[in-house]
Amino acid sequence: MTIENTTTLDTSGLNCPLPILKTKKAINILAAGDMLQVIATDPGSVKDISSFCQQTGHELVETSESGGKFNFLIRKH
Amino acid sequence: MNATAQDTSQSNTQYPADMDAWFDQKFDERMAQREADHVPSMTIIATKGTMDMAYPPFILASTGAALGWDVSIFFTFYGLSLLKKDLDLKISPLGNPAMPMKMPEGPKWLQEKELNIPNSVMSLVPGFETMATTMMKKTLKKKGVASITELRDLSVEADVKMIACQMTVDLFGWDQSDFIDEVSDWVGAASFLPTAQKADISLFV
Asked: Could you report the predicted ipTM of this complex, rounded to two decimals?
């Protein structure tokens, strides 16, 4: 699946609350409908990113894990 | 009471049954709309100035702001030093009994070992708190936890309101110019409480 207008944010190695704060900053500069891919190593980010999306109205399109890294795909609201 | 008034009160209680259903539906709609429009708000009172106690207010505030909430922190007593231009926060294992003491570096077995150092020893060794602070800073960095300066900058950037207690400045003989320019207000309890009263969440740290 190819998605246009996808920005990638790598938060590997960062711990709570930095992945959320960086995600928020990255989303701020996107246009509605744009996609943001977030990579994280913090296991807490799985629930935190989901909660963040629920609170802010952005759509969490996909969550996956491979090789100790978490991958989130968010569509800006 | 005249007859007209009586008639009115009767007609008020005898409106058609579908009026109830209409009102319930309208009420639910309005309430849902109100909830959707409501911007959650949080106020935090920061009263401690050690490095460990600086984390909760700044982590919660910056995260709240990231969630789109309206956040303010009231810094009072030792907490006010968290707003100083030059942050030199220390941590004290003395009288902080649940604080784990672990080596940030060295062989794995040593890093995993919890160092049990009696209070009497800690209090006698000169520079013990400086050493503990250095160790904690190393651990925080290694684990990817933000520094207090970084979290404070992120909070300011995310429009967290930094409110300072004027009485504390006078009490400790400080000057307003010792503190960051982003302090939005220098006030007292009577100015802060009305903000806290309207907030959805109010925390004391």
From this structure: 0.82
Q: Which of B61, B40, B90 is nearest to B182 (CA)?
A: B61
Does B62 reach chain A within 8 Å, measured CB to CB? yes
Question: Is A21 within 8 Å of chain B by CB?
Answer: yes
CATH number at residue B180: 3.40.1260.10
Q: Is residue A1 a part of any domain in this protein?
A: no
Angstrom CA distances, A59 to A32, A46, A55, B39, B75, stand at 11, 14, 10, 19, 36
The pTM of the full predicted model, rounded to 2 decimals, is 0.83
Number of folded domains that form chain A: 1
pLDDT tens-place string over residues B46-72:
999 999 999 999 999 999 999 999 999
Which of B63, B68, B143 is nearest residue A17 as measured by Cβ atoms? Answer: B63
The answer to whether position A37 is within a domain reads: yes
- A16 has catalytic annotation: yes
The boundaries of the domain holding residue A51 are 6-75
What is the nearest CA distance from A13 to chain B, expressed in angstroms?
5
* Record: contact A14-B154, CB cut-off 8 A: no
